[in-house]
Amino acid sequence: MxxxxxxxxxxxxxxxxxxxxxxxxxxxxxxxxxxxxxKASGPANKKSLFDAAIVKRAVVDSLKKLxxxxxxxxxxxxxxxxxxxxxxxxLFGHGGHSGFNLQITLWLWFTVLFANFAxxxxxxxxxxxxxxxxxxxxxxxxxxxxxxxxxxxxxxxHLR
Length: 160
Known about the structure:
The chain is mainly alpha-helical and about 160 residues long.
């Protein structure tokens, strides 16, 4: 690894990382008689689609996204939001006795809120994944085999 950035890396000099051991069992515990039944254990678990922290943040963000200035970035949803405001005003302006107007108003508001919530959830999951990748990058270690047979540990951030 003493070359320049443009110099090709000698792949035979980098060895694979040994399997991690968790809770006294190696990662290949199934071959040692420990069945995992397809479920991961420890910090490598994937978060649920509806992780509580992400959902709470998405609810707050979806309400913030109702701001018309922010909504104008998506013209289609902006028109739906304007329509939902207009139908709400018509619903309460004319006594609110029309079942049809109520139904249209509810569907329009549901559409706007659900679209904002879905977008906020996607952003939250993306941020969580980026954080996990950053954390994994800083924690990963490569093992370089030197010419004399010694193994040198190198942080992944130093690999080129």
